[in-house]
Structure formats: C-alpha cells, structure tokens
Amino acid sequence: MTGPPPTITSFTPTSGQPGTALTITGTNFSTYQTVVYFTDASGGTLDVAGTITSVTSTSLTVTTPTGIINGHFRVMTYTSDGLTGSVDSTTNFLPTVWTPTITSFTPTIDPVGTTVTINGANFDPNTPTNNVVQFNGTTAATPTVDTNGTVLTTTVPSGATTGPITVTVNSSVANVGSASVTSSTNYTVGIPPPTISGFTPASGAAGTSVAISGTHFGATQSTSTVQLAGTALTATTWSDTGISVTIPSSSAGVPSGPFTVTVTGQSATSASSFTVLPAISSFTPASGPVGATVTINGSGFSTTAANNTVKFNGTAATVASASGTSLSVTVPSGATTGTITVTVAGNTATSAINFSVSPGVTGLSPSSGIGGTAVTISGTSFSTTAANNTVKFNGVTATVTSATATSLSTSVPITAATGPVSVTVGGLTGTSSGNFTVPAPAISSFAPTSGPSGTTVTITGTNFSPSLANNMVEFADRDGTTLDILATVTAATPTSLTVTVPGGSYSGKILVATPAGSVSSSTTFTVTVPKPTITSFTPTVDPVGTVVTITGTNFDGNTLSNNVVSFNGAAVTPSAATSTTLTATVPSNATTGPITVTVSSSQLYIGSQSVTSTGAYTVGYPQPTITSFSPTSGGPATVVTITGTNFGTDPQGAGSVTMGTTPVAITSWSDTAIQVWLPYQGTSGPFTVTTPHQMTVTSTQ
Fold this sequence. Notes:
This protein folds into eight domains: about 90 residues, Immunoglobulin-like, CATH 2.60.40; about 90 residues, Immunoglobulins (Immunoglobulin-like, Sandwich); about 80 residues, Sandwich (Immunoglobulin-like); about 80 residues, Immunoglobulin-like, CATH 2.60.40.10; about 80 residues, Immunoglobulin-like; about 90 residues, Immunoglobulin-like (Sandwich), CATH 2.60.40; about 90 residues, Immunoglobulin-like (Sandwich); about 70 residues, Immunoglobulin-like. About 0% of the residues lie in helices and about 55% in strands. By secondary structure, the protein is mostly beta strands. The protein starts with 6 loop residues before the first strand and ends with a strand.
C-alpha cells in the first residue's frame, strides 16, 4: 500500500431510493480512483459498487445502486501504484424503494365508500399489499395497481376525514425501507357540490325541453331541486351529470335567468341565463272592431302590463292587464287585419293566425225613425266603396248611398223593426251596442167611426209604414175582442192609412201593425149592417091601418124582426120583407111625417143602420082628384062616370056628388070611379065629389 488509508466521518443522506446521490465526508479520498461498495441484497456482502460522480480528498458523491440492502458501505481508494486502503462506515445506509409520486386523484370529494383513483408513479405493481393508502391518516383497503405502477384504485375508508392522501410503498425485500408521498391537495370526505357546466338550448318558450349538463347532481333526483330564476321546475330526467327540464307556463310569470341545482343543501348556479321567450297560443275573440277587448293567451308574458308590447298587424295596442299567461288588450285605432305580436324584453312572439279587424259601429244619427228615415252610421273600418258595406237594421238589409272609412249614409228599410244595426265588410260584421228604435205605430183617430163591410175608413196617427204591404190592419172577429179580420190597406203615409172594412168583421177596436210593433185603437169602430135606402113608398097618404109598401135596398129579407118601420116615429114591424121591399101597416099612433127604416143584425157586435125618407107620409085620407068624366053632356038620367083618385069607398053612403049645386044620384062608388044619373032639372055645371071622409074635389073640365 502507498499513501494513507481513507476515513469516513459522515454521510448524507442516511437512506434513499436507488440512484440517490450520497455525499460521504472524510479524508484521504483518492482523486485517482475511489470505489464505494454497498451491501448486496442477495448475499449480504459488500460487493455492489455505486457510481462516483465527484471526489475530492475529503468528499465524494456516489449514486446508490439497485439491489442493495440496509448495511454498511465501504470506501476503497487507489493511486497509480495500487490500493491505498479501505474503510467501512460505522453506521448503515438504508436503501428504500423508489419514492412514489401523486400527480392527481379523482374524485376529489365524495363520501366514505367512494372509489378513488390515484395517479402517480413508483407504486408497487407486483405486490399490491406493499402499497398503503391513507386518507388523512386513516388507512384504506389494499389498492389495486396497474402494471406500470402508475395508478392506484382504492375506497375511501370508514372513519376517513377530509385531508391529504398519503401513499406509502413498502418493499418485499428485507432491510429495504419504504417510501411515502402525500398529496398537495386535500381529499374532501363528503357529498360533492353540484356544478353546472352548461345548458341547451339557451332560450325557448314554455314547453321547451332544456338539457342541463354538470356534475354531482346525484344518480336520482330524490329531494334535489332545480329552478329557473327562482321558479321551481319539474325534471323529466335526472342523472349525476345531466338533468332535463321543461320550461313551465305560469300566470305568475316565469322570468328569464340562470338555472340553480340544489343537491343535499349545496347549490350550483349556471354562469349564463336562460331566456324565456314569449309565445302566443290563442286569442279571443278572433275578430273585433277598433276598441274591442281582446284576450291573448300564451306564456312568457311579463306580469307588468307596460313591459309587454302588443301590436295588431304592426299597430301598437294598449295592454290593460297582464299575467304570465294572459294579456288583455284593446284593438287600437288604425289596426288592420293581420297577426298579433307580443314583445317582451326584446323577444317577440307572433300569432299563428290573423286577427280580423271588423267594422265597428260607434254611433247612429238619428237613433230612431220609421222606414225611409235617413240615418248616418259612425264607426271604424268601413269600406270607402258604398256597395262593399252591408248594413242591416235588425237583420233587414238597407241601401248604403255613400261611404267613408268612418261614416255610412243609409236609410231605414221599410220592413225594419227595432234592434241593433250591423255593418258587414269583407265577411266581418260589427254591431251597434244599442238598438236603433223603429217606433211602433200610434192611432189618434179614425173616420168614419161606423159602417158596414166595404166602408172606406181613414186611420190617422203616427209611425205608419209608407209601404202598403208593411201595414197590417185588422178588425174585430165575432167576439168583438179578437182583432184578426184582415182589412185591405189602399193608401198609406207615415200619418194616415186608408182601409176597407173587411167582410166578416164585427164591432170592436182597430189594430194597426207594422214591422216595428202594433197598436189598438182606444175607441171602437162599429161595424153595421149595410145602410138601407128608400127609393119610394106607396101610398104616400092614407089613414092609420093602411098597408104601405116601401121600396129600397139593404132590407133584411130573412128576418122580419130585423126591420123596423117608423111612421114619423111610430114604429111597427113589417108584415113582409125582401131585400128591396117592405110591407107595413100604418100604426094607430102614427102621425104625418117621414118614414124611417131601421135594419138590425141577428149577430152580436153588428150595429143597425137607418134611413129616413126624403118625403113625408101623410096619415089621413088623401085628397080626392077628378081626372075626367064621361060623357061631358047629356039629358036627364044620363049615366055619367066620374074618374079620379082617392074617392074612397062608400059602404054607408056617406059620400055625395053635386052638379053645380044640384045633388045627383049615385049609382056606384069606388076609390077611382063614381057613376051618377044626371038630374031631371036639366042643370049644368062642374061635378063636386065629397068623399065619405068629407074630402071635396070639383072637376075643372
């Protein structure tokens, strides 16, 4: 040997994995050659050399080899002349397994029993039991190890608490130390909070299905909840990483906003907001005039009326009230037929069908009148072409003479009755809110107040129809009360009707009916028998008891008692009757005067009619007349026939004849002829006849 032997005063570190840089301090280390031997794991001898990386006389650095065990190491030094000496360490160097590393673990939070995967290096893939995993000091079950020693899988043990994960790797070789590594982050023992990574779609109306993506939602919903801007939603599907919900419709409104998922008291809120779009499902009515109230049904509306912009075919309307599912609006002035739109927060919904703006009737001037009255209709959405506007008064079509968009000129149809006025344009109809009044007729008087069938009666009043056919006039039936015997109207004005009393009618009130109503007269029209006439009667003078024949018309030839003959007021029932002839006997109380014939009816409610002769009947004996005598001359005892009238009969011989002043003998006497003998005195002169009733007449021949 040449030179002093080496010495070891210390070394560091005192243990380490293969490849550890071991620094040995001492003396007499050779810069020419120094060798360090470690204890062989197989035989326990110092014969496994490490690799010298640096050396000075007092310090050297050696890389520990593999396959060594806990034990002394030996330093041997050389010069060019050979070995200078050797020295063994007085204490052991403890080789260890390779130091494990933890790069990550997943999950980072979950309850006891959760399977955790630890990623890293230098795990023992051959003997799983050499790998010990602890969760904040609590040892887990033996893990499984992949073949590369880079992945450990174990289960969070009972009793584990939140803290770091430590992995200790032991060696299967005796006298080889273990190595440990502790995670830089904690594993949280417990339920992990949910997270929301996104959702799709980003907007939609009520009924839209939205898929929410994230983590830790739980396998089932259980007591977990999901909300949109505070509004509870119903999940249709639920898994740990995904939830499906349907956007609801609510009268309280469903606002736009973020989704919030709450699981076991822990909540996650989406970073972005879901936009609830408005939608129109229907509206009612489907048509209406300007000013009409329309209810729009749908979803996604603002509950603040002013926050909803509603337009009718582009014309903005006023929203009177609002809920999340319904809007009450008024059809605006200027609106035309088209779709309805609702805009909320810049998002617009459009109706699937059009709202039809119908004509509107806002005023009638005048508001009442009979057929033919000129009327101006005020309103909206009229056609400016008169013929394109159909106007009806209570269903009866009127003629439009002129038109603007807001005014129509027309007249009341003759057959109209009280009721609303409608205007139809293009199949759409608007109706007045109030009625146009067609006043009912009124009767102030009629003349004459009585007469038989066929009598012409003038009825005076108001509100008659100027059209003959639209005035119905009826007279009483046989009960005097029921007005159902139709008369013929021959002339009509609004204030006057001319009618003919119909056959079969009876005394009673008169009814006038127009399309606007009906009225009965306050007084009775008396239906009479036909008025009789007297054309002559014979004789015209005669005493009581004389049979008089009256000639005329409209006598009752069927019932004698319906005919009454009055001689200057003294009534008598005729003894015979036809429709043109009455035979009556002058009654005892008769006096000179006209003859009156009164004809009555056998029916109730039929009045009588009377006629009075223009000439008087003289009650008494008629004045005799001498029309002639023959011969006009002759001797004594000549028979002379005096011809004339009203001589009467002379059964008692009360009559006399004189010639001049000389009485002559009477040989025969009748009412129209008297025969006498001329006297023997041979006198001459006129004949004077004195009737039995002392009526005298003298011939003029």
